[in-house]
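just leaving the lab so this will be short. what follows is a protein written twice so to speak, once as letters and once as C-alpha cells for the fold. can you read through it and tell me how you think this chain folds. thanks a lot i owe you, the record is right below.

___
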Amino acid sequence: MTKITITKDNLLSLDEFKTVLEQMEVRSSPLNHIFRLLRELVAFEQKYEMASDVFYARFMRGEMGDDLPLIKWAGRYELYLEARQEIDSQLATLPVAA
C-alpha cells in the first residue's frame, strides 16, 4: 500500500491532494479502478438515460455539446476503455490451462 506523509513543508492544495488520491487508487488494483469507473459510468447513464458507448460516439461526433459533466463522462469512459484494454492484455499473457 502506498503511504503519503504530509508535513508543514509539503502541504498540498485540495486539488493536488485529490490528484494524489486518485493516482493511488488507480495504482491499487486494475479491477478496483474498473469497478470505480463503472460506478461512475452507471451514474452518468442513469442521469442522462443513455449507454456510455452510445454517448461517447455521439460526443466524439460533436452532437452532445461541451458541458463539463459531459466532458467528465467522456474522460471516464476513455479511462474505462484503457483499463479494460490493460486487463485484457494481461489476461492474454497468462498461460492457458491444459
Summary: Residues 50-85 form one domain. The two ends are 35 Å apart (CA to CA).
